From TrEMBL:
Keywords: Amino-acid biosynthesis, Aromatic amino acid biosynthesis, Lyase, Phenylalanine biosynthesis. One of its GO terms (molecular function) is prephenate dehydratase activity. It is an enzyme of class 4 (lyase). It catalyses: prephenate + H(+) = 3-phenylpyruvate + CO2 + H2O. PROSITE patterns: ACT, PREPHENATE_DEHYDR_1, PREPHENATE_DEHYDR_3. GO terms for cellular component: cytoplasm. Pfam families: ACT (PF01842), PDT (PF00800). This is Prephenate dehydratase. Pathway: Amino-acid biosynthesis; L-phenylalanine biosynthesis; phenylpyruvate from prephenate: step 1/1. NCBIfam families: PRK11898.1. Coiled coil: none annotated. Residues 8-186 form the Prephenate dehydratase domain.
C-alpha cells in the first residue's frame, strides 16, 4: 500500500514505545502509518483536529493501575470515542550505551508508569541510582543515546533503535505484567456489538449528597450490569472534587446497559459516553435474570399494552 493512502494513527513516541508495539499488533497494522507524538494529549489532539484517524494510548497497567494522562484526557476536552482495547505483555530491560557497566549507572530514566514496575529490581541492583522521568520509555532511551542519562527502562526491542545495548533483561518485578491500550477516534456510531463487549463512561456527582456514589452504582446494579473497573479521579477544579471513570460489561446497544445509562443521565452530572467496544479478554458478560434484551422488550410491550387498554 502506498504511503499516502495509509491510515494515520497517532501514538506516544518516539519510535520504540510499548504504545507503538501495541499499534503494530493491531489487525489493520499493515494499512497504518504510525505518527509519533510527544504526549498522550498531543496524540489525542491530532485525532480531534483531524490530522490522524485514530490514536493508540495506554490506559491501565496491571501493576501500576490507571494511566491518568489518558483517562483525564478522555474525560475532558473535545469528546473522543474508544473503539477497541488491547492487552500487551510488558517486560522491561535496562538499556545503556555500549560498554557501560552497572557500576557506572548513576541515573535511570523512564516513563512514570515504568519505574514502579521495576522498583524492587532497582532497589536491589541499583540502590543509589537517581531516577528521572521521561515522556516515554523510548524518549528515555533516546536521551540515554544523547548522553543525558546513563540508562533507560524500556522494552529490549527499543535498544536497537537508539544504538543502545541491553545491560540487564527482565528487570520488571511482576512476571506476566500487562498494559491495556485503547484505540480512540472522533465520536461516531459505536462499534457493532460483538457479544463480548465493554462500555466506558465518565460521570460526576450533582451535589455530593450522602449515598450519591451508591446511587450511581445502583443504576448498574438494578439492571444486573457488572462493573469491570471504577476509578475515582480529581476533577482538578478544587480539593475534594472527583469524577468517576467506569467500565461495565456489555454494549450500549444492550437494553440493560442503555437503561443504566438513561438512569445515570437523569440522576448524575456530566455523563460522558466513552465507547462500547469488544473486550480484549473476551470474557462473557454476566447477565442476571430479568435483564436480557428479550425480558426488557417483553416488559416494554406489556407497558404499551396496558397504556393502550389491552391488558
Ligand atoms: O508506551 C510506552 O513505552 C510508554 O512509555 C508508556 C507506558 C504507559 O503509558 O503506561 C506504556 C506501557 C508501560 O506500562 C509503561 C509506560
Amino acid at each position: 500500500m502506498s504511503h499516502a493512502s495509509r491510515r494515520r494513527y497517532a501514538y506516544l513516541g518516539p519510535s520504540g514505545t510499548f504504545t507503538e508495539a501495541a499499534l503494530l499488533s493491531l489487525p489493520e497494522a499493515e494499512q497504518i502509518e504510525g505518527v509519533a507524538y510527544p504526549s498522550v494529549p498531543a496524540a489525542f489532539d491530532a485525532v480531534r483536529g483531524g490530522e490522524c484517524e485514530a490514536a493508540v494510548a495506554a490506559i491501565e497497567s496491571s501493576v501500576e493501575g490507571a494511566v491518568t494522562a489518558t483517562i483525564d484526557e478522555l474525560a475532558s476536552g473535545e469528546p473522543l470515542m474508544i473503539v477497541r482495547e488491547l492487552l500487551l505483555p510488558i517486560s522491561f530491560a535496562l538499556l545503556v550505551r555500549p560498554g557501560t557497566d552497572l557500576d557506572s549507572v548513576k541515573t535511570v530514566a523512564s516513563h512514570p508508569v515504568a519505574m514502579p514496575q521495576c522498583r524492587r529490581w532497582l532497589g536491589q541492583e541499583l540502590p543509589d541510582v537517581r531516577w528521572e522521568t521521561a515522556a516515554s520509555n523510548a524518549e528515555a532511551a533516546r536521551q540515554v543515546r544523547d548522553g543525558v542519562f546513563d540508562a533507560a527502562l524500556a522494552g529490549a526491542f527499543t535498544a536497537a533503535r537508539y544504538g543502545l545495548e541491553v545491560l540487564a533483561d527482565d528487570v520488571h518485578d511482576n512476571v506476566g505484567a500487562q498494559t491495556r491500550f485503547v484505540v480512540v477516534t472522533r465520536p461516531g456510531t459505536p462499534t457493532e456489538p460483538s457479544g463480548l463487549d465493554k462500555t466506558s463512561i465518565t460521570v460526576g456527582l450533582r451535589d455530593n449528597h450522602p449515598g450519591e456514589l451508591m446511587e450511581i452504582l445502583e443504576e448498574f446494579a438494578r439492571r444486573g450490569v457488572n462493573l469491570c473497573r471504577i476509578e475515582s479521579r480529581p476533577t482538578g477544579e478544587a480539593m475534594g472534587k472527583y469524577y468517576f471513570c467506569i467500565d461495565c460489561e456489555g454494549h450500549i446497544a444492550d437494553e440493560r446497559v442503555g437503561e443504566a445509562l438513561l438512569g445515570l443521565r437523569r440522576n448524575s452530572a456530566h455523563l460522558r459516553f466513552l465507547g462500547s467496544y469488544p473486550r480484549a479478554d473476551r470474557q462473557a458478560p454476566t447477565i442476571r435474570p430479568g435483564n436480557t434484551d428479550e425480558e426488557f422488550a417483553a416488559a416494554r410491550n406489556w407497558l404499551a399494552a396496558v397504556r393502550d387498554g389491552n391488558r
